[in-house]
Sequence to fold (235 residues):
Amino acid sequence: MKKQRSQQNPTLLHNLQMELNKRIVIILLISIASTIIVISWFLQAPFVSDKAKIAAVTALRDRLGSIPEEGTLIIVDYTQPSQTKRLAVMNLENGRLLFHTRVAHGKNSGGVYAHKLSNIAGSLQSSAGLFKITDEFNGKHGKSLRLMGLDPELNSNSKERGIIIHSAKYVSLKSIIANWKKGFYLGRSAGCFVLSNDSFNKLNQELIRPAYLYSFHNDNDYSSYQSLPLNKRLK
Fold:
């Protein structure tokens, strides 16, 4: 009788251990799957805040006197982390957001976040405020879009600094993964607005003149503008 019990107990313990192991594996698989879903959403979802959109539209109206009936407004929300799609392209005719994408900030502005923005030559920092896209040209980065700063206090030295929109290989998921030791941040620029090659080509195709770019950093960037709710045409 004792011998029979001693044979049953190890079997029972073995079965319990197997069942526990199965549950642990299931929990781990669910956790991994959930993490992958969250990360995928974080990397693919648009991250341009309403504050940034309002600031961009307000700045455009303030500088031009009215919002153009047609054209393009590019909104960069530098309050968001660099891994996210924090650049939005808006059609001014109907207010629709055409697409979102990632954009790099200056290497001296910060790592994951652009904490510091500047209008000083040689700072290697991004600039805030409203810009106008003046022309397209071929430079050392290939096809590029030249910018003219429209805010004296925020970006008046953009031409001297060579601040442009261009593409580079370091704006990619590969560069985010490569920077895993430093917080998974996107590759950084010398102060320019840098997109991936595919996003730059898409922007060039969608661009309607006149075209503007607004770089949002914090509330102080547009504190001088009058309060303006989101334009009724914006969707």
User: Anything to note?
Assistant: The two ends are 79 Å apart (CA to CA).
